[in-house]
Amino acid sequence: MATFKERASYDWTEDSIRIMATPSAIAKNTFFYVQEIGSFQTKPNYFTEREHLPSYLIVFTQGGKGYLTYENKKYTLLPNQIFFIDCMNYHYYETDKNDLWDILWVHFNGPVSQGYYQYFNRHGSPVVSVS
């Protein structure tokens, strides 16, 4: 099995929120479950680069601008857009230095999570706009 790799700058404001969950064994083996959830108002040096994390990630852009590199493609993330990725794959995301990113996010996993991801991914892009 590949080794988890992460490099990050957790550069966010003091009023940002990060909650780590401790799911039960039943949840881990039966359902999908939240691993972490939060709301970040980023500062200029915010970024995350990782791979081989057994998790799925959904990020919603509330304001500002961010950038995602995933499956060898680069995406600009604008307000009212989400991305949904499999964190086992290499990914890199960061804030725009001049238009700081304001995001809501959730990491989750579980036996049914891959099915949700595959269903979402059928249109071929990890990024979609929502109204």
Output the helix-strand order: EEHEEEEEEEEHE
Distance between the termini: 39 Å
Q: Largest sheet, order of strands side by side?
A: 2-3-10-5-8-11
- Which strand-content bin applies to the residues? over 45%
Which blocks of ≥5 consecutive residues have pLDDT under 50? none
Q: What Rg do the Cα atoms give? A: 14 Å
- Tell me the number of helical segments per DSSP (H or I, 4 or more residues long): 2
Shape: globular
Largest sheet: 6 strands, antiparallel
What is the helical fraction, as a range of percent? 10-25%
Mean pLDDT: 96
Count of distinct strands: 11
What structural class results from the helix and strand content? mainly beta
Walk me through this protein's architecture.
The longest helix is centred in the last third of the chain and has 8 residues, at 113-120. The mean pLDDT is 96. The strands form two sheets. A six-stranded antiparallel sheet has the order 2-3-10-5-8-11, covered by helices on one side. A five-stranded antiparallel sheet has the order 1-4-9-6-7, with no helix packed on it. It has helices spanning 25-30, 113-120, and strands at residues 5-9, 17-20, 33-41, 47-51, 56-63, 66-70, 73-77, 81-86, 91-95, 102-109, 127-129. A hairpin with a 2-residue loop joins strand 6 (66-70) and strand 7. It is mainly beta and 131 residues long. The protein is globular. The chain is 11% helix and 48% strand. It is built from two helices and eleven strands; from the N terminus they run ββαββββββββαβ.
